Amino acid sequence: MDQIKLEENFQAKLDRNEMIEPKDWMPENYRKHLIRQISQHAHSEIIGMLPEGNWITRAPSMRRKIVLLAKVQDEAGHGLYLYSAAESMGISRDELLDQLHTGKAKYSSIFNYPTLTWSDIGAVGWLVDGAAIMNQVMLQRTSYGPYARAMVRICKEESFHQRQGFEIMQVLAKGTPEQKAMAQDSLNRWWWPSLMMFGPADDNSPNSANALKWKIKRESNDQLRQRFVNQTVPQVEYLGLTVPDKDLKWNEEKKGYDFGEVNWEEFYNVIKGNGPCNKERLSAKVQSHKDGAWVREAANAYAAKKNKVAAA
Ligand code: 3HC
Predict the structure, then answer these.
(1) pTM for the full model?
(2) Cα–Cα distance between 308 and 303 in angstroms, integer?
(3) How many Å lie between the centroid of ligand 1 and the Cα of residue 135?
(4) CA distances (Å), 78 to each of 44, 51, 174, in order?
(5) Ligand 1: lining residues by beta carbon, under 6 Å
(6) Ligand 1 mutation pick, 108, 204, 268, 272, max ligand atoms within 8 A of CB
(7) How confident is the model over 5-33, as a mean pLDDT?
(8) Distance 60 CA to ligand 1 centre (A)
C-alpha cells in the first residue's frame, strides 16, 4: 500500500473512533508522540511513589499504614502497565528507564514537591490523584488501544486513591484546631501545583494540536483544569477549608469558577529540573535502580534456565 493510502486508512480509523493497535500502520510522529506521553505518564506513576512512600513508616495507625501501602503498590502497577503499553510501540524498557535516569524524559511536575506532614498525604490523594483522574478519564478513550485499556483499571484505582485522600482530609478538617490548620496548610501548598499538573495554558501547549487531531487527548489542558476547579471547590467548602486564591469567584454566565493565574514561571522552573525536590527524586530513583540490579540479574538467569529446559 502506498504512503497516501496508509495515511488515509489511519485517519479513517480515527474518524470512526476505532483504536489503533500495535500492528497497525501509524505515522512516525504519532508513534513518537505516544511514546513521549505514555512514558512520561509511566515515570510519573513510579516517581510518584517516593513522596508517599516517605510516609508509610510514619502513618498514624496500622489501618492508615495498610491503606497507604496498598495505594503506593497500585502506583507501581500503573507504571508497569504503562511501560508495557509504551513497549508495544517498539521501544525497550531499558531505553525508557535510561531516558528517565539521565533526565531526558519528564515526569509530572507535582512529584517535585515535598510531603512535609501527614495531611500532605491526604492532600496528595485528594488533589493530585483527583487531578490525575480528571485528566485520565478521557484517556480511557484515547486512540491507541493498549494505552486506553491500561487506563481503565488505572482510573478505577485512582478513584479509590482520591477517596482515601479526601477521607484523611475530612478527619483532619473535623479534628482539633491544630489538625484543621494542618489540613489548610496542606491545601495551601498543594492547590496551585495540582492545577499545574494539567500542563501549560492551551495557547502555550506545543503538543496539544496533534494530540487532539490524533484523538490522543480528547480535551484540552485548560478545559480539564477548569473542570477540576469546578469540581473541587465545593469539596473544599464541604471540608470547611479555604481555597488559597483571592481571585476565585463563581461566574454564573459560564457556570464555572473564575480563578487566578497559575504561576507559570514556577511551573517551567520545576519541569526544567529546578523544583524543590527534583534532584532528590531522581537520585533516589537511580539509586533504587542500582540496588535492584541483582533482582533483574536473578530474574534473567531464571528465565534463561526455564527457556533452556523448555527447549530441551
Ligand atoms: N509536568 C511535567 N511536564 C509537563 C507537565 C507537567 N505537569 N505538563 C506539561 N508538561 C510538559 C510536556 O510533557 C511537554 O514537554 P515535552 O514536549 O518535552 O514532552 C511540555 O510540558 C508542553 O506541554 P504540552 O501541553 O504541549 O504537552 P501534552 O500535550 O503532552 O500535555 C499532559 C501534558 C497533560 C501532562 C499530557 O502529557 C498527559 O495527559 N499525559 C498523560 C497523563 C500524565 O502523564 N499524568 C501524569 C500525572 S501523575 C499520575 O498520573 C500519577 C498518579 O499516581 C497521581
Answers:
(1) 0.96
(2) 9
(3) 10
(4) 10, 16, 33
(5) 36-37, 40-41, 44-45, 48, 75, 106, 108-109, 128-129, 132, 135, 196-200, 205-208, 211, 221, 271
(6) 108
(7) 95
(8) 33
What residue's CA is closest to ligand 1, atom 54? 129
Sign of torsion, CA 123 56 111 133? Answer: negative
The residue whose CB lies within 8 Å of the most ligand 1 atoms, and thus the one to mutate among 37, 109, 111, is 37
Task: Please report, as a single letter, which amino acid is at residue 9.
Answer: N
Separation of alpha carbons 86 and 275, rounded Å = 27
Evaluate whether 17 touches 215 at the Cβ level (below 8 Å).
Answer: yes
Q: Whose CA is nearest to atom 24 of ligand 1?
A: 205
Rounded mean pLDDT, 55-72: 97
Q: What's the pLDDT score for residue 132?
A: 97
pLDDT digits (tens, 9 = 90+) for 218-269: 999 999 999 999 999 999 999 999 999 999 999 999 999 999 999 999 999 9
Q: Say how many Å lie between the CA of residue 108 and the centre of ligand 1.
A: 6
Residue 104 CA to its chain's centroid (Å): 18
CB atoms within 10 A of CB 183: 28
Residue 1: band (very low, low, confident or very high) from pLDDT cuts 50, 70, 90? low
Show Cβ contacts of residue 124 under 8 Å, excluding neighbours closer than 6 positions. 51, 52, 115, 165, 190
Quick: pLDDT tens for 167-189.
Answer: 999 999 999 999 999 999 999 99
